[in-house]
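can u pls check wat happens w/ pyridoxal-5'-phosphate
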Amino acid sequence: MTYDFDAVIDRHGTGSLKYDCAERRGKSADLLPMWVADMDFRIPQEAVDALVARCEHGIFGYTEPDDAYFAAACSWIERHQGWRPDPETCTLTPGVVFALAAAVRAYSEPGDAVLIQPPVYYPFKEVIEDNGRVVARAPLTYANGSYGFDATEFERVVSEERPALFLLCNPHNPVGRVWAEDELRAMGDICLAHGVTVVSDEIHADFARPGFAHASFASLGEPYVSHAVICTSPGKTFNLAGLQDSNIFVPDAGLSERFRHAVAAAGYSQLGTMGIVAGQACYEHGEDWFAQMKAYVEDNIRLTGAYLREHAPALHLVEPQSTYLLWVDCRALGLSEDELHRLVEDEAKLWVDFGDIFGPEGEGFIRLNVACPRSVVERALVQLAGAVARL
Ligand SMILES: Cc1ncc(COP(=O)(O)O)c(C=O)c1O
């Protein structure tokens, strides 16, 4: 079937973090929300049908996924993410951030350092600090408008700060990098040499743009994979964030036991019924929807780049290699962080994620989510460019 991603579906009144929580979050209700990483698109019809059928049954007791669930998840990952996971090594968690926090507790002690590469998805820092660990930072390089990985600096931080684990964002949110196999291997070699466990957050794995291919940390094979936790999820791929279903693969038996213990110690055992139903249906039947959605988002990304180049050339779109989150360098405007906030919120009337929440390296940047109908992207761009033109 052909999906209509142009349809503007009113999400107000659904408890949506993006649409219903502005004032609670200290934002004006009239801002156009372009921030949190979910999509304004209905999920595949087969998944809606599966959820409705399950609802009609009317009993929602404790639920465990069966073999068909794991077969569907592993088959999707093999076909789309380039490696074949073993279902026996999978632990289900109610989200990837939950898994990151569990990994921090499983593989480090209070006071230990945990390595990240800022600017990076801000819950990485939060799960480290909220668990009484210390952030070790090996920032990405940024030159000529694009991001890279500096092995020398990474190794210096690892050898000086001795992190117990490394939270890798693969692909990287917010800068949109798809890490190449040789970059992953370089990170892996340094981590292995220093006994650092690698936790690879691959929630955006399915979003590599044309010309780029996601490389899972797991695809490096042995010995890397035996020192790693691979976090996967249908949450971003199929817009299921509210249903909390994640598949975390820990190939090494010892690391797996510690991870499962940390999940159990948090008091967690069974996933929500609906997450399992929707996850399986999407993995089994979501191929067509996913291809159409990705093509639509690709056009939104291209439109954004072209529009900014023409109407607000001082704003540089860091060309993403993956994700539907666009990282825009606004530093050529010469504004302070407060002035940038005022420009975007008071003048452009947009609710975005400001770059500084991803680390000080993100100051002067904004992150825009373009997984929404084209008319919404166009409106956001007109508002943003208009505000810049009035400066
Ligand atoms: C890199 C990354 N990891 C994890 C998450 C959230 O995952 P979950 O909702 O499964 O906790 C996001 C959401 O934006 C993300 O970008």
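The chain has two domains: 17-44+287-389, 59-285.
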